[in-house]
Prior knowledge:
The chain is an alpha+beta fold.
Amino acid sequence: MKMKLLAFTLLIVVFTFIGCSTNPKSISELKFNGIVAQSEKEPGTLYYLIGNGFNIATSASSTDSIVNSWIQKHPEALVQPIYAFGKNEVTMKFCLVFDGADTLNNYLIRQGCYEANAMRIPNSWNEIIVDDRRLIESLPGEPFFEIYLGEEAQISFQEQITAAENKAKKNKIGLWK
Length: 177
């Protein structure tokens, strides 16, 4: 019953994206290197699977192979930006990667690859982790911050991620061994 409720909640989150100010991309448009992806059409944009601590988050050693395996099993998955920040020609986007009711982001947490906090969605420039802000602040120009996901969907996503972390802890996998 819990799983059905989570799947239903996830579908609500996915349907919420229809009203987002950005359109989802096909996963085939991006080339992944672990949790980071790029598109040939947008050379200055980096797509991330984690939302907090892009450069410092602790991950399980198996993370890259888990990402690659999930992508191979879900070739029709979509990539939906959740928020973006950057300056001028450099943009960093935290994305939800989903295929039906399954998301790569939740899967990474369920597998113990990251703590739930790595998926936290900031609501302003000042809520972005200091190391990530410093990287962008070192570039010329004015920084920007854009969020594409509504508050209700953010709360639902965070609840799912927290539940996934609890499952990983209970099963003692990944970081929780």
